[in-house]
Task: inverse folding
């Protein structure tokens, strides 16, 4: 199957541990400007050649295009490094010895501005420090090769980069009543004997260089450049005052402060008071929500809120603000602090404050509106853009509630209920407590644990726990291929939990929910479109598995799901949002409708994030109480996990598979009656191979070449697992014992991943295998490799993959483990997740059960276990083994 697409594509960035990153392409439903596409291609080509060098070049690039937000974030990190270098007045002297060192404040700002991005769990100060360390090393390497100046090197990449000269402007507050501010120009003199630069008053340069010195002109070049753009600085240069400390009136200081960006672009470094750098905080309306306990908890609960004004971090009364309004624009000294005064903004702020105060006195703010204030306080309070900053904080009661939800350590433990046949891990026990609490509070919950951490068992524990009080009516909506997984897990872990299947694949289909009793009703997204009674039923709980199925809000499927009626809602997904905010909105539109506003409102908010990425921090803060996301990389989780997580993945036969399988059973039964001895053993082994082939795909058994997805339950299950792997940009190796199906599986996965993969089997030339492994382990995203278990079971190092899928079973645990260890070995930095495919009701499930019991009895895996033991069974045992039981 060839994968071709006319759709445009754009880059996506993935964060990796210790300052690392990766780039990949994703297809998009929008036009990508030709220049933008070329710019991104250039970045990607550099990345493949040397990813550290690519990051440096990205930071130095002249960017005339809007980059995808995750790549834009890498640009911010790298350009901050380049800017740090450019602000070093000794850069030219230090050259390869120069280092960019991020300040704490800068790191915090970069972290706060991070978008939703794959690998966000690695983003912290350590990551930024490591990333800058890599940039320092590649910069040093480049400078050792470069013959010209450092400025020439960077300006050849981007002429808009401004390099600092050696002159500094210092504005400080003065105690003199007539001149409350003082301005001093200094310069960085040659380093002293101990190697530290000395900052001297600019007048010293007159004595050091002389008035006509070429060096003096060079030193003052940045000042002259600033003077060419500023009348204020031009006047100081012409009179010679620039060389001496001078006092400034408030209006002169205000002119200077407003022109700081102009001076810095000319290469003059400015040291100014912190209160001006933080002038966005100078005028602020503070809103506190939920100080007192509400009568009940839920998004409809009414909560109190109050507002007050502050200027320069100090509370200010309406009377004091009115007095400031009468003053002219500039700087004013109030409550021991200098603040910026803009009469027009002050008047508009007063009007907005009066409106907000009236709203507060009405006391009719719902908890949902209160939480939405975190994102759009200006809109809810009818405040025009850029009038003032609105700071929203939670009162004591609301903060206690939300802190409890954000930190499940503080939630009271909940029992799993009677007859629950499993012991939850510590993090799963916390997940159960969190889900139970969310239900009790009437809040929609998204359990977004990483694949392999046990979302299913946590939900089953929740439902079994609830059953002890009252058997509620639960609707569980899953992809069709997961019905078997859920029924098997419920029967295994909570056998007393009643469950019904609403799907044609069951012989006894449920046609309505019994009003008198509860239970778990399992159905599929497709069945919701066909059965009106499901939408009309009042459910106690609705659980969506693989909730990314509703990420596209415009589909009929998503709209139908959101018509369901329930008192409590839970969404399960391994990828709540990685790179598309619209996915997040759609899932929350189901869980807590209105919390993120309408689709139009959220789209407008998302657009503003490109202009002001601080909004990402607000959005994360707002949704965090409703999402529980634990990752296999979390330090608190790793200690509670085995390094290799094995899980059985069930699929069901398609109609065509079931027909072929049943026919094969009848044929085997007839032949067993007339064969014996060696011929009988050969017949059984041959039949075993044919049954495996049918379970894989009918076309493998029939020797055909179409391999339609809907004709194989394993193909459908493979897609669902690999779509999650692709969302996270992880890698997988797929093992099969049949060479003939390696290429069809690879063709199918090429469509799933929208990327080429690799194939390795017994006929792959030995000389080519090294290149195949090197490519899979390289920087380019090669998402999958399909291997025959004999060819790939030994001698390969495939640690780039952290997923292993056994598409069909060898039924020799030692051989399977040996194959798994291609990924799980020295050099692997992630937990390896092993999926063992089993087709429900077939010989695959029965033999797996027999092997599991055999291992339990012997307490060890027998290395010589193979399929020949099956041939020793009598005919009745064989037919019980092969007969289809669903």
Result:
């Amino acid at each position: 199957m060839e994968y071709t697409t006319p759709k445009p594509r754009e880059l996506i960035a993935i964060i990796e541990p210790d300052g690392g990153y990766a780039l990949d392409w994703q297809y998009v439903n929008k036009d990508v400007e030709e220049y933008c596409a070329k710019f991104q291609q250039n970045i990607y080509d550099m990345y493949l050649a040397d990813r550290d060098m690519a990051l440096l070049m990205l930071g130095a690039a002249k960017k005339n295009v809007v980059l995808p937000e995750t790549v834009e974030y890498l640009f911010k990190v790298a350009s901050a490094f380049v800017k740090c270098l450019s602000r070093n007045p000794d850069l030219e002297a230090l050259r390869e010895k120069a280092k960019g060192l991020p300040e704490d404040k800068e790191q915090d700002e970069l972290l706060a501005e991070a978008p939703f991005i794959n690998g966000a769990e690695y983003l912290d100060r350590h990551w930024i420090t490591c990333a800058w360390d890599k940039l320092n090393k590649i910069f040093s390497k480049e400078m050792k090769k470069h013959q010209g100046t450092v400025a020439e090197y960077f300006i050849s990449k981007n002429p808009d980069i401004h390099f600092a000269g050696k002159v500094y402007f210092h504005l400080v507050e003065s105690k003199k009543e007539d001149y409350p501010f003082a301005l001093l120009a200094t310069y960085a003199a040659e380093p002293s004997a101990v190697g530290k630069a000395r900052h001297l008053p600019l007048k010293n340069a007159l004595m050091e260089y002389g008035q006509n010195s070429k060096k003096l002109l060079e030193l003052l070049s940045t000042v002259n450049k600033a003077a060419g753009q500023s009348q204020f600085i031009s006047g100081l240069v012409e009179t010679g005052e620039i060389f001496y400390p001078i006092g400034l009136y408030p209006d002169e200081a205000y002119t200077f402060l407003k022109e700081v960006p102009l001076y810095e672009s000319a290469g003059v470094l400015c040291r100014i008071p912190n209160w001006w750098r933080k002038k966005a905080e100078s005028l602020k309306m503070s809103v506190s929500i939920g100080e007192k306990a509400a009568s009940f908890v839920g998004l409809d609960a009414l909560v109190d809120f109050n507002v007050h004004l502050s200027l320069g971090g100090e509370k200010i009364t309406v009377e004091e603000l009115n007095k400031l309004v009468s003053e002219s624009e500039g700087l004013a000294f109030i409550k021991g602090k200098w603040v910026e005064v803009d009469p027009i903004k002050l008047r508009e702020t007063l009007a907005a404050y009066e409106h907000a105060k009236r709203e507060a006195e009405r006391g009719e703010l719902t908890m949902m509106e209160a939480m939405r204030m975190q994102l759009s306080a200006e809109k809810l309070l009818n405040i025009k853009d850029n009038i003032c900053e609105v700071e929203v904080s939670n009162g004591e009661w609301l903060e206690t509630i939300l802190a409890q939800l954000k930190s499940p350590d503080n939630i009271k433990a909940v029992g799993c209920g009677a007859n629950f046949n499993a012991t939850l891990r510590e993090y799963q026990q916390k997940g159960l407590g969190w889900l139970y609490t969310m239900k009790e509070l009437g809040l929609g919950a998204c359990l977004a644990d990483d694949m392999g951490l046990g979302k299913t068992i946590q939900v089953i524990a929740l439902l079994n726990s609830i059953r002890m009080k009252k058997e509620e009516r639960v609707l569980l909506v899953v992809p069709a291929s997961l019905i078997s997984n859920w029924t098997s897990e419920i029967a295994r872990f909570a056998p007393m939990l009643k469950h019904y299947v609403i799907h044609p694949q069951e012989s006894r289909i449920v046609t309505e929910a019994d009003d008198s009793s509860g239970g778990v009703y399992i159905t599929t997204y497709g069945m919701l479109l066909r059965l009106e009674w499901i939408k009309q039923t009042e459910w106690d709980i609705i659980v969506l598995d693989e909730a990314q199925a509703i990420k596209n809000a415009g589909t009929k499927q998503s709209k139908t799901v959101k018509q369901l009626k329930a008192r409590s809602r839970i969404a399960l997904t391994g990828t709540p949002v990685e790179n598309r905010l619209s996915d997040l909105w759609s899932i929350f539109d189901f869980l807590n409708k209105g919390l993120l506003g309408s689709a139009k409102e959220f789209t407008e908010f998302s657009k503003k994030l490109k202009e002001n990425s601080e909004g990402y921090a607000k959005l994360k803060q707002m949704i965090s109480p409703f999402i529980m996301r634990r990752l296999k990389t979390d330090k608190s989780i790793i200690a509670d996990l085995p390094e290799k997580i094995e899980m059985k993945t069930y699929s069901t036969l398609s109609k065509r598979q079931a027909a072929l399988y049943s026919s094969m059973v009848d044929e085997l039964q007839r032949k067993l009656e007339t064969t014996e001895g060696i011929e009988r053993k050969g017949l059984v082994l041959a039949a075993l191979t044919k049954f495996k082939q049918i379970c894989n795909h009918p076309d493998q058994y029939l020797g055909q070449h179409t391999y339609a997805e809907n004709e194989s339950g394993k193909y459908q299950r493979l897609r669902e697992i690999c779509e999650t792997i692709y969302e996270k940009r992880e890698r997988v190796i797929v093992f099969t014992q049949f060479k003939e199906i390696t290429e069809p599986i690879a063709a199918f996965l090429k469509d799933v991943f929208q990327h080429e993969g690799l194939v390795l089997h017994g006929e792959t030339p030995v000389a080519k295998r090294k290149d195949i492994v090197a490519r899979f382990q390289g920087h380019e995203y090669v998402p999958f490799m399909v291997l025959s278990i004999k060819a790939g079971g030994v001698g390969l190092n495939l640690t780039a993959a952290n997923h292993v899928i056994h598409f069909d079973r060898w039924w020799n645990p030692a051989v399977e483990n040996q194959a798994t260890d291609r990924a799980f070995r020295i050099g692997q930095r992630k937990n390896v997740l092993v999926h063992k495919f089993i087709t429900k009701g077939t010989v695959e499930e029965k033999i797996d059960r027999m092997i599991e019991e055999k291992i339990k009895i012997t307490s060890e895996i027998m290395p010589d276990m193979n399929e020949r033991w099956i041939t020793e069974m009598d005919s009745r045992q064989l037919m019980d083994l092969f007969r289809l039981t669903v």
Q: What stands out?
A: Residues 408 and 434 are 6 Å apart (CA to CA).
